[in-house]
């Protein structure tokens, strides 16, 4: 029998609707599931430690082989709420930006927007651990995931990256997609897709299991994150990847 498919998913609240249906689903018999932050699982897929991951789209050019295996993604076609540049000062007064070590797509998107859309003259600062306390004065910070939902309560200026991308390109943005580094059996792909869809049809149950005291999860799951990988999202993804491949 073929070995189990190793699957890595993002550990943030935005992924809970996609993972909800895996429990008690026959696909679980075919796979081993682990969760971590996006930059970590990106490295696992690049290194071949896993077969499938909900990886940041920005790392696709680094994969020798990439197959999009599901019709669901972590995307947005308006403000996403959890991928933002946070600041104490207006955009053009920012001098330095702390980058989120957990991210790959949003760091690349931020750099693109800073250069091509906002046209800012700023210094980027890499981070390796907790850095949100450095977001003050003219030092701004990119924060993603649940930590971004927390940062919304602290920073007076919030620049939403998905919203800026939409204004810049008129296309939706895909932060992460289910990508495999080898061809997988059709039977697995069909079961995987079916499992992904269950939570999206049962959002009240997903929210009841993951309540948040700081952000309205119903708004997050229905108006911020957009899960279906539609043709427009694929177009947005292609546009982003081609920017990256042209050296942006
Ligand atoms: C919308 C989000 O998208 C995330 C952003 C990612 C990135 O910047 O590399 C990767 C995975 C997604 O979970 C978020 O985490 O808030």
From TrEMBL:
GO biological process per UniProt: menaquinone biosynthetic process
Keywords noted in UniProt: Lyase, Menaquinone biosynthesis
Gene Ontology MF: a single term: hydro-lyase activity
InterPro entries: Menaquinone_biosynth, MqnA
Keyword Transport: no
Pathway noted in the entry: Quinol/quinone metabolism; menaquinone biosynthesis
Catalytic activity: chorismate = 3-[(1-carboxyvinyl)-oxy]benzoate + H2O
Family: Belongs to the MqnA/MqnD family. MqnA subfamily.
Name listed for the protein in its UniProt record: Chorismate dehydratase
Species annotation: Chitinophaga caeni
Gene transcribed to yield this protein: mqnA
């Amino acid at each position: 029998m073929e070995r189990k498919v190793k699957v890595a998913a993002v550990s943030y609240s935005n992924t809970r609707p996609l993972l909800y249906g895996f429990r008690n689903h026959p696909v679980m018999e075919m796979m081993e599931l682990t969760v971590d932050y996006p930059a970590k699982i990106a490295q696992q897929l690049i290194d071949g430690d896993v077969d499938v991951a909900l990886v940041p789209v920005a790392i696709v050019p680094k994969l020798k082989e990439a197959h999009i295996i599901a019709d669901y993604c972590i995307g947005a076609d308006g403000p996403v709420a959890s991928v933002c540049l946070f600041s104490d000062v207006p955009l053009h007064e920012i001098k330095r930006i702390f980058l989120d070590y957990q991210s790959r797509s949003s760091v690349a998107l931020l750099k693109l927007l800073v250069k091509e859309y906002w046209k800012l003259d700023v210094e980027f600062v890499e981070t390796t651990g907790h850095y949100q306390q450095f977001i003050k004065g003219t030092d701004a910070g990119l924060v993603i995931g649940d930590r971004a939902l927390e940062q919304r309560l602290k920073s007076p200026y919030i620049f939403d990256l998905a919203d800026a991308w939409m204004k810049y390109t008129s296309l939706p943005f895909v932060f992460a997609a289910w990508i495999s580094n080898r061809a997988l059996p059709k039977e697995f792909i069909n079961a995987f897709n079916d499992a992904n869809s269950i939570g999206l049809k049962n959002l009240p149950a997903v929210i009841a299991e993951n309540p948040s005291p700081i952000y309205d999860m119903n708004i997050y799951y229905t108006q911020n994150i957009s899960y279906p990988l539609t043709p427009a999202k694929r177009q947005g993804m292609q546009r982003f990847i081609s920017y990256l491949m042209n050296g942006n």
